[in-house]
Amino acid sequence: MSAKTEIQYAQQTAANEEMKGSSMLIRALAEENVDVIFGYPGGAILPTYDEIYKTGIRHILSRHEQGAIHAAEGYARVAGKPGVCVVTSGPGATNVVTGIADAMIDSLPLVVISGQVATSVIGTDAFQEADMVGITMPVTKHNYQVRSVEDLPRVIKEAFHIATTGRPGPVLIDLPKDVSVATGIFNYENELDLPGYHPTVHPNRLQIKKLQDAVTKAEKPVILAGAGVLHAQGAEELTTFAETQGIPVASTLLGLGAFPGEHEQFLGMAGMHGTYAANMALHEADLLISVGARFDDRVTGNLEHFAPTATIAHIDVDPAEIGKNIETHIPVVGDAREALKSLVEMDGERGDFTAWKNTLHEWKTKYPLWYNEDDETIKPQRLMEEVYEATNGEAIVTTDVGQHQMWAAQYYHFNKPNRWVTSGGLGTMGFGFPSAIGAQFAEPDTPVVAVLGDAGFQMTAQELSILQELNLPVKIILVNNASLGMVRQWQQLFYEERYSNSLFPIQPDFVKMAEAYNIKGSRIDNLEEVRGALDEALAHDGPALIDFRVTPDENVYPMIAPGKGHHEMEGVTP
Amino acid sequence: MKRTITATVNNNSGVMNRITGLFARRQFNIESITVGMTENPDVSRMTFVVNVDNYRSLDQVIKQLNKQVDVLKVRDITDESTVERELALIKVVAAPQHRSEIEAVASPFRASIIDVGRESVTLQVTGDQEKVEALIDLMKPYGIKELARTGVTAFKRSSKKTTIDNPRYSIIN
Ligand SMILES: Cc1ncc(C[n+]2csc(CCOP(=O)(O)OP(=O)(O)O)c2C)c(N)n1
Asked: Does domain B2-80 have CATH number 3.20.20.370?
C-alpha cells in the first residue's frame, strides 16, 4: 500500500483561477497535504465526489459513515495530522455525530465536510436536510455553513488551522450543494483573520519558575501525564524532565505512551482501573503536576478525596480546563511540549525524593496488577500479555470500549508515543475497529492490532469490507466473553447480579463472518494455541481475525467504585 | 453572586445560538442577555447578568466564553465603573381614580406613561436593575398585568473615577 497518492491536481490550476466550489475544496485539501479522505457519498455531496473522481485524490469508502469518522479519528491520533471525513447531508451527516463528539472530548483534529441542501431550500425541511451546524455546535471546536463560494477557501483554511492548533478538535464545514457548483476565485494565500482565536502556546516564565520551585521543595511529587503531551508531541521532553528531576510518572488512559511504559519511574495508569501505585501516588503526593490531562472523573474518582494533600500544578493549552474540576495552585497555560521544554531548560535544583521513591517502589512490587490463571479458559489479561509479547510491544493497538479496553491499557506497555488509540472521554463502542483502519493508513508499515469486545465489534463490523477491498493488514483480536462484559461486571457488583440485557444468548460465527469477507479467520479457545495463532496472524500478509474465547465472567480489577476515592480501591490483591 | 459580563462577538448568524447553547450545556445560570450591533457592524456586543456560586465558577464562565472562536473579548465589569441600563415596560391595572397616584409614584423614577387603556396604563422606565426593580415593586400593589424587560446592557465608563465612590442616598438617579 502506498502511503501517499500522487497529488497531480495541485498543479492543474493556477492560483486565483476561477473554479467551482467542489474543485476549490479538493484543491484546498491538496494545499493542506491531505493524503486520504474517509467518507461516503450521497446527493448533496455529489459535486464533491465528482471532483474526487476526476482528481484521483485518495478516498476510502466506508460501509457506514460512523466507520469513516472513526477511521479519520484513528488516522489523526496516529499521524498527528487532521483526519478528513466527507459525508452527504441529512442521514450521512447525522451518522458522524457520534464520531465528532468522540473527537471533541478526546481532542482529535478532524475536518468534517458535510453536504447540505441548496441554500434556497435550507430551513424548509427539504429532502435530506438536517441542521448540522445546530446539531454539532456543542460537539465541535468550531463549525461553519458556507453560504457563498467566495468564502469557501477562507473557511477551509480556517477549519484546518482551528482543528490543529491550540487544543485540537473537530471542525465541521457544512457545504450546500449550490455552493459547491457555483464558481468563484480560488485564493488560498490570504492571511488568516481570526481575531477571536489566539491559543496560548508559550507558557508564562514566572509560572514555570513557580512550578520548578515547587518541585525543588517537594518531598512527594508525581506527574500525571495526559493526552495533551501526545498532541503536543512532547513525550521526549516529558521523559527528560521526569528523569532529570527524578519525578515518578502516572498516566491517564489516553496519555499512555507519553512516558515509556516500562520505565522504572512509571507507575502505570491512574484512575478507575489504574494501578495501586499510580492511584496511591496521586492520593499521597504533596505536589501533583498534571500535564495535558483534564481531571476527568474516571481519573480522579470522588473529587472530595482527590489528592487531598497536594499542591496542584496544571499545565494545559486550554485555559478553561484549569480550575474546571479542581482548584489549581500553579496554573500554567501553554503547549505541553513548550512548558516541558522550558522546565528542562530551566534545569532547576533537584529535590530529595528518596523516601517517596522507596514507598512507591514498595507499592509497585507489593501490589502489582494481578489475575488468577485457571486450567480451563484463556484469561483475557493473559491474552493481552501474549499480544504484547507477540508484537514485541511495537504494534499500534486500538481498542473498543469495555473490559478488554481496560485490560489492553493495563497489560500492553507503550514505550513509544502514538501507538495507543482508544475512545476515552466518550467511551464510544464501535470505535475500535474503524479507528484501526485509519491508524493503518497513517502508518502503513506498522502492525496494527484491533483489540475488540464481541459486542463493540458488532457495532461497526461492516467495515470488514475495507480490509477485504484493500487487503489492509489490520489484525482483529476479538476478546470474546459472550457478553457486554463491562456492563455485566457492573450488574454483578452493583445490581445484585441482575444481568439485564448483557449476556448474549446467541452470537454470530465470527470466523465465518471474516471468511464472508475473504478474511483469514480462526477461533482459539485454549491457552496453548494463543501464541501460535497470534504469530500466524501477525506474519500473514493481510487482514486476520481471531475469535479468542476468553473467561466469560472475568472482572477488571483493581477498581475504584463510583463515588469512591483513590485510597478506597478494591481488588488490589487476589 | 450576580456578575455583569460583556462580550464583543462576531456578528455572524448563529453566534447567539453558540452562546446560549454554551450557557445551557455548562449549566451556567443567566438572568439576562442583551445583544445588539456596535459601532462596527461586524461586531455585536452582548451583556450577560449571570448568577454564580463562587469565583471559580465565574472564571469558568469567562474562560468558556473566551474559548468560542466567534467571541472577541470578554470582560467582567461588575467591579468596574460602568454605565448599566435596562428598559422595562410595565402594564399596570389602573382604574381612573388611581391614575394620578400611579403617575406620582412613577415620576421620581422618570418613568413615563406611554400608553393608556380603559383599565390600565403602561409605564416605561430606564435605569440600572435596582431602579427598575424598585419601580416594579411599587407597582405590584396596583396589579401588574404585563411586564417586559430588556435585560441589562452595559459598558465601562470613559472616566476612571467610579460613581460608587460617591455615596448614594437613593436608588433613583
Ligand atoms: C455506543 C455505546 N453504547 C453503550 C455503551 C455502554 N457500554 C460500555 S462497555 C459495554 C460493553 C461492551 O461489551 P464488549 O464490546 O463485548 O466488551 P467487553 O466489556 O466485554 O470487553 C457497554 C454496553 C457504550 N460505551 N457505547
From this structure: no
